[in-house]
Amino acid sequence: MAARAAALVVHDLKNELGALEAGLRQLAMHPEAAKAAAAHAQCRDLRQRLMSFLTIYGHDGELRAICEDESPAEVLQALHDRGLERAGRIALSLRPMTDLPAIWFFDRRLVLMALEAALHNALRFACSAVWLGARVDDFRRLVFVIEDDGPGLGSADAEAAASTGLGTDLCRAVGMAHGMPSGESAVSLNNRPEGGARFELRLPI
Amino acid sequence: MAIETPYSKIHALIIDDMAVQQTTLRGQLAMLGISRVDQAVTAEDAIRHLRSGKHGLVLCDFNLNHKTDGQQLFEHLRENELLPADCLFFMVTAENAYNSVASASEHKPDAYLLKPITASDVEERLKAAMERRKAFLAVNMALTKKDLPAALAACETLLAAKDRWFIQALQQKGQLLLQLGRPEDAKAVYQSALSQRPQLIWAQLGLARALKAAGLFEEAKQVATEIVQSQDGERNVAAYDVLAEALEAQGDTQAAQWILRDAAMIVPSAKRQRLLADSAFRNGDLPVVLDALNKVAKATKGSMAALPQDTLALAQALVDAGRPAESLALLDQPRSKLSANTAQHESVALAIRAQALVRSGDLDGALQAVARARENLRGAKADFATVALAKAELVTGHEESGLRLLGAAVSSDHENPRVKQLVRNALRDTGHEEKMDHLVESAAAGLQSRLSEAKTLFRNSQIDDALKAIEGALKEYPDNTSVLLQAAQMNCLSLRLKKQLNAAVVDRVRLYLARLDKLMPTSDRVAHMQRYFRETLAALAEPATA
């Protein structure tokens, strides 16, 4: 990987580690359950970022997906359950899943890792709600969808500008590992007509 | 205070040699309400714990120690039925090892957990595994009772639901059909799975096995080759096994050995080295045998994976390779308490010792050893022990006894090419190679006369006498697959002719088929006989129609 990208990632992680260190120091002096939970959540996020980093760059050759028969509904439910603690005041909900296929073939671990990164972003920018859903598109691809009611793309957000784009890189790598043709994008991030952003991860059959 | 959760009743076992990781995992389990947790540091420790049969969940680190990895332990537990039927097995692996671990193993644990593990990771996998268990309850209950037709029927019910478990039910159905000796039906199941997703490795492997079981060796080889040449299947050692078995069935034992060598390079486990050594031993390729068995000895020294047979095979190979002093030194080594020796084992060791002593010039010592070996090795079979004793007899000048033993070994299964290979090597090593054809012919002739006597009686409608004759032949050659097949067929025919479901005869056929399945697993001839038996039962169970 490019040295510049590595430096950006390290810089990003270093800042968050500094914030966590400060939080833990404060906790050591004044123990408080809510702050301890927040420190734990921050620590978990950092770990997940490091795992994403390792998943994209920490192996020889290209990323490989070990696909098994999985239930898209169960994966969305797991994503929802994992996100609840982090959601805080944001209402995290599942779209109706009645039309979903019972089985799709994908690497559950990689897909959940990618979706968690996308959910992390959605929760950062949402005003009050994030929705999780999935559908099969006209090209017989399974599409996982994460929507938020935040300011959407193109807003002058300093935090967004400072982001290293690790989450998007991860999602792209996961899509490619599942055999998405190189000409087609496995990932898209667009504004919703009703406001907010819509993230989509596409997986071929 | 313990938390009450859906998992509180589970008794767990953590297998990990790192104290820190054990403490972390114990903490994660406590967060899920699992407070009854045992800890094991080694594979032997783990086996001791699991013998209690009380565990419902095992968390096992893949990197146990340099001798045994988690996958080897898992396979050992499964093969020796040490894992309770309702116990979940989760393998804990490092991120960088996951791909190679998951793609090389055919026998998969209930879940892989990647480090660092959190309580929610364990809970998610636990929930999914318990849901799967609930869905497959009827199938597993039938399998516990070894009632394969009932398991198949339960699979059909699952398939009809067309839900989340459809693909796994299809996989189970394919396996059951193969076990039931219905390769054609299994083939159709695997093909239907592949029509949904061509890259499914388990379906490709199942198809290769079905083709092999149906005697279509060329096609089986082609499918197995495609698996090992694909990116997802290049480390699939089970596909290498199918390829080697198909090659062996076609008589190309040398190529089969090369394939097994490739598989042993991919997964250099004691089990794979043993398979390679076994194949090379039959081919008389002693350098490969010695190399593989030395690797086995090194890998299993002082571990639960060590087998008494490993030492014997290595000692025999050293004698055959003209290194009797090393063979004797090996046989003199004190045995570990893990490899409990039986009288049979001691006698084989004596037979090999006798061969080594002759080669070292100590004929008196050899004569004493062979005399003691003879005491416990009665009832010649087509096995390593009989051949070892026969060789000891031949090299100590007891030509008649040696040839008689080898003749008995051939007769016990005169059409089995593996037996013939072993006997041929024994004759060559002892300077009697020219006797092979005569030995096989006379063994087959004696047997053929018994078989034709039974067949003649049957043709003359003396059915009960024919059955008596074939049972007599079976008493003399209990492991002879030709006699067993003939006995199964005659008993089936007698059922059809008498148009009556005689319970004793049905049980007898089942016994023969079970013995055949053990002697020649996945053989097409056995499969055909199983089908014929089922058809016989079905025909007699149906009410007579006008």
From the alpha-carbon coordinates, what is the Rg of chain A to the nearest angstrom? 17 Å
Q: What's the helical proportion of residues of chain A?
A: 40-55%
Tally of distinct domains of chain A? 2
| Spatial ordering of strands, largest sheet of chain B | 2-1-3-4-5
What is the straight-line distance between the termini of chain B?
Answer: 74 Å
CATH architecture of the largest domain in chain A: 2-Layer Sandwich
Overall pLDDT confidence of chain B = 88
Secondary-structure content class of chain A: alpha+beta
Q: Approximately how much beta-strand content do the residues of chain A carry?
A: 15-25%
What's the β-strand tally of chain B?
5
Range of helix content of chain B: 55-70%
Largest sheet of chain A: 5 strands, mixed
Reading off the top of the CATH hierarchy, the class of the largest domain in chain B is best stated as Mainly Alpha
CATH hierarchy class name of the largest domain in chain A: Alpha Beta
Structural class of chain B: mainly alpha
List low-pLDDT spans of chain A: none
CATH architecture of the largest domain in chain B: Alpha Horseshoe
Major β-sheet strand ordering of chain A: 2-4-5-7-6
Protein chain pair with the most extensive contact, residues per chain: A-B, 21 and 22 residues
Mean pLDDT of chain A: 85
Fold and architecture overview:
The complex is a heterodimer of chains A (205) and B (546). By secondary structure, chain A is of the alpha+beta class. Chain A contains six helices and seven strands. Chain A has two domains: 3-57; 68-204, 2-Layer Sandwich (Heat Shock Protein 90). Chain A has a five-stranded mixed beta sheet with strand order 2-4-5-7-6. In chain A, a hairpin with a 5-residue loop joins β6 (187-191) and β7. In chain A, α2 packs across α6. Chain A starts with a helix and ends with a strand. In chain A, 32% of the residues are buried. The mean pLDDT of chain A is 85. Chain B has 546 residues and is mainly alpha-helical. Chain B has four domains: 12-135, Rossmann fold (3-Layer(aba) Sandwich); 181-266, Alpha Horseshoe (Serine Threonine Protein Phosphatase 5, Tetratricopeptide repeat), CATH 1.25.40; 268-431, Serine Threonine Protein Phosphatase 5, Tetratricopeptide repeat (Alpha Horseshoe); 444-541, Serine Threonine Protein Phosphatase 5, Tetratricopeptide repeat, CATH 1.25.40.10. Helix content of chain B is 68%, strand content 4%. Chain B is built from 27 helices and five strands. A five-stranded parallel beta sheet of chain B has the order 2-1-3-4-5, with helices on both faces. In chain B, α8 (166-179) packs parallel to α10 (201-213), α16 packs antiparallel against α17 and α26 (503-519) runs antiparallel to α27 (524-541). Chain B starts with 11 loop residues before the first strand and ends in a 5-residue tail after the last helix. The model of chain B has no long low-confidence stretch (mean pLDDT 88).
